[in-house]
Every structure is written in structure tokens, then in C-alpha cells.
Amino acid sequence: MGHLSRTFLCSVGLASLLLGSTGCISNILADGQIAATRQAAVAVNTIADYELQRSATEAGLAQFEGMHLIRPGNKDGLFLLTQAWGGYAYAFPEDAYEEATDRNDDELASYHKKRARLAYDRSVFFGLELLSHTADGFEAAKRNADTLDKWLKGFTSKDDATNLFWTSYAWMSRVNLYKDDTSMVADLFIGVAMMERSVALDPTLEHWSGTIALAAYHARPAGEMDQAKQLFETALAKTERKNLQVQLNYATSYACLKGDRTLYETMLNEVLAATDPDPEQRLVNLLAKRRARRGLLKSHMQECGFDMSARPAAPPASPVAPAAPSKAAPIPGPTTATTPALPPKK
What we know:
The chain has about 350 residues and is an all-alpha fold. Helices cover about 70% and strands about 0% of the residues. It contains 16 helices and no strands. α4 runs antiparallel to α5. The N and C termini lie far apart (about 85 Å).
């Protein structure tokens, strides 16, 4: 009887231990799945099918939200949500907003603009949560440039640069979308400071997209046009002209504001003439082409103040030579690709 009692008690103790560890094992498995999803997500950047990208992105967002519900403190999950919502906003609802605007469909344009705003809001929300894992106190830090600069000094690694970039990307894009909202524009310095810190830590991130974003920021009314030009030229050289978002933003921000029609058309025609300059950037280059076509519409060029009676610039003599095919990439589950360049200012 005593032996049976001891055996029973030992069995109960073992069962309790196993039950108690079940939650820990589930968390480990969930963390591993989230980490693997983040690693595989970049493969979708090689797909140049806009409708497929939309479906994959929307499925990815649902997946990432579910992962976050299970593991709310997981940094990889927070990163995926920050990146995915920001990239989705630029690639799809903001693109639809621009198309509706060109068709003078105010009701549809307003609808898609609100969708883009909600997506950027969500990206910023998750981005700030992600950044708080490295340095808390953002609400106090954002009071002015000095307190913000002090807070940003707490970010020192290349991982920090990535997190800052995507949070800033959504912040700056949201302001650009609502540039008529003075209260939102007043907080633009926050996104700019984050981007500057990101670039200081890793200027090569996302094919020099931080530099592109800052160049577009400086190319604004009463902005620093010489600095913008220098940054665009640096980005063109460093990317070997393979990131077509450089040419797109060079045209729609700097050349438009300067009234340089030749540069404007040359840059946009270069985007359209490019075939497949980098297989790893097919998605962002596809998005650049969609916007370049719209940028060459008469209505857009008139907004830049160009004399439309003058002869247009000739397109490039030959398309940009395609890069060598990329190595086979793993096929991920439902994930999202992103669009790193700052949306062009009009």
C-alpha cells in the first residue's frame, strides 16, 4: 500500500510538472514560428505581381495579428506588424487613393485615404511598442527636439536602426498623406529625427531607403534643396540605380519643386524603361513604375508648374540592364513585402 501511494504521488507530481511546462513549450514554439516567419518574409519581395502581392499582404497581416495575440511581447512579431502595416498602406490603399484622385472620384479617394491612415496609425502604434523594448519614455521624449535627441541616443545597434526606420517610415508617410493637417505636420520632426538616427546607425538599410526618405523630406517648400539633391545623388550612386524609388522620388519631389521638367521626365522615363534591375527589389520597383506612369500624366506635370507646350524629354536610349537572377529563396507562408521609399510629395 505504501509503495502504491508513493507511486501515485510520484505520478501526480510528474503530471503537474508536465502540465506546468505546457505553456512554456507553447511559447517557445510560437516564438520559433514568428522568428522563422520574419526570416522568410523577404522572399516575397522577388514577386512582381501586384494582385498577388495584395492578397499575400492582406493574409500576412491577419497572420501577424494572430501571432501578436498569442505572443504580445515578441519583438519579431511587433516588427512584422510595424513593417507590414506601413508597407501595406503605401502599396495598396494609398495607391488606390492616388488613382481615385486622378479620376476625380472624391468619394472613393476619401475612402482609400482613410484606409491608408488607419494602416499607418497601426504601424506607428506597433512601432512605438517595439521601440519601447529598447528605450521607454517616448511620450516625454517627444516634447521637443532636445528631449527626443536624448531619447534616440539610447538606440545604438543595426537592429535598432531597422526598428527606427520602419516606425519613422510610417510616421513620415502618414504626415505626407495628411500634409494639410497642421497638427500632424507639427510632429513631423519626430519621424525625421528617428529616420536620421536610423541612417546614422545603418545607411545601407533597405537599399538606402532612409537616405531616400530624408532626401524627399529636404525637397520641400522652404526646404534644403541642395541637401536634397546631394542625398538623391548619393542614393543613385550607392544603389547603382537599381532601387527605382530613388528616381521616382528624385522626380516627384526635387525636380517637381525646382521646376526642372527635363530632370523630372528623365527620372520617370528611366523608371519605366528599367526591366528587372534587381530581382530582390521587384516589388518596390513595381510600385515605383505604377507611380511613375501617373507622374507623367499631364495633370501631375501641370501641378509641378511645367510648361506643357514645350517638347518633352526623350526617354533613356536603352533600358537599364537587368541584374543576374537571384538565388532561389524559401517560399514563406502568408507574409508581406514592404515599400521602403517615402511617398512622393506633391
